[in-house]
Design brief:
Double Stranded RNA Binding Domain, 2 domains, 8 strands, 4-stranded mixed sheet, 22% helix, 4-stranded antiparallel sheet, Ribosomal Protein S5, domain 2
Length: 171
Amino acid sequence: MAMQRQKSEFDQKTLDIRRVARTMAGGRRFSFRVTIALGDRKGGVGVGTAKGLDVAASIEKAIQQAKKNITKINTYNGTIPHTVSRKFRSARVLLKPAKPGTGIIAGGAVRVICELAGIKNVTGKIQGRSSNKINVSEATVAALRSLKLRRQKGPAAPVQAVSASEATPLQ
């Protein structure tokens, strides 16, 4: 009987598949490097990169790596709470919050990671010298990881006025 695969709670997208080679005495040995983004569309996202002798093996390794790297993202009304910029190696990513209905305005790995994280409205820009998908994806995850939630605005603490004669002098 064939084993049935169970449905994962994570959605996955392949960011990059490359054939890489190392030179040995008898010639070149080829392997495959795969980068996968994984997310639950509820604020959890992770990126994994792995190598293997064939594509299927490297995809499985990359999925396991991405599951280990999943982090929770702070979102605010379907967007990010504030503008953030992060750098990873030579890739720099700038993310800005957007109004509802805007959608995801970003390219490449930034768009994929924001979709998998469940962010619905954001504007992103890949800056810097690198368009390497691995570096861009790591910079995007680092930017999302660094988000802080806005403080809730509530009633301020009451302030009592003190006259100069009642105040105690500083020593």
